[in-house]
Fold each of these.
Amino acid sequence: MHGARITIWFFIGLQLTAYGAMIFGYGCYEAATGNYATGVQLTNLHTPIWWGAVLLLLGLVYVVKFVRGRRSSRTGLSSRHAERRINAIIRKGQQPRGGEFLKEWYEHGSATNNDLRDRGGQPRILS
């Protein structure tokens, strides 16, 4: 269930990509036809092309970085891989190392101590 989450940054990246593509397209149209708005100064700089390209590239960076199923930038593990590691450690009856275990656990979004043990005090297996 934890791997099914998509962060808000992915959708912000989609929005930036869409706006960047529209502004870039308008800037290309404006430069090709020479139809500039009246009273606009410095039209030779073609600012819609530059800003459209910047927004488009920034949006694509966000989309690629935060797409679901990609490896985490903090641990280098995908969320499914981290969940499998946690389950394997708990099934073997080993005590997970604190820092590494908690880092992977926080990656899953389960940061409460109640999630670590079931009602009987035994380590809980993630499903």
Amino acid sequence: MAGEETRFKPGNKGGPPLGNQNARKAAIWKRALDKALERFARKFPATEYEDITNLRDRGLAKIADQVVEAAAKGDATCWQEIANRMDGKAKEHVLVDMNRVAGEISDDELLNIARGSGDRTADEAERAEDPAGLH
């Protein structure tokens, strides 16, 4: 398994492994967004959000106001975003077929249900390729 050689060893401070390019790219993206939010906030009078001193936070406040206004006008994407942030995203709904008795389900089928591969047999599930772009 990846990372086993450094996992839970003395001196391992945690975090991404050295040379992790994803962490570096994420940090670059975050800095770019921070700067963009600061530039965005400068477009509006400071008195509009005078209680917020940080430019990035002021930019986020302006965007939040715009999302709320759009939601109030009926923009479904905006009100869904607000609901997701306030209540958390809705859990995935699972349809359950109560017509089958557990004793009628083979061990292979149970294993595949647990793996999330549905009603396929273990052999069919192993032969199936991962859908492109899943990861």
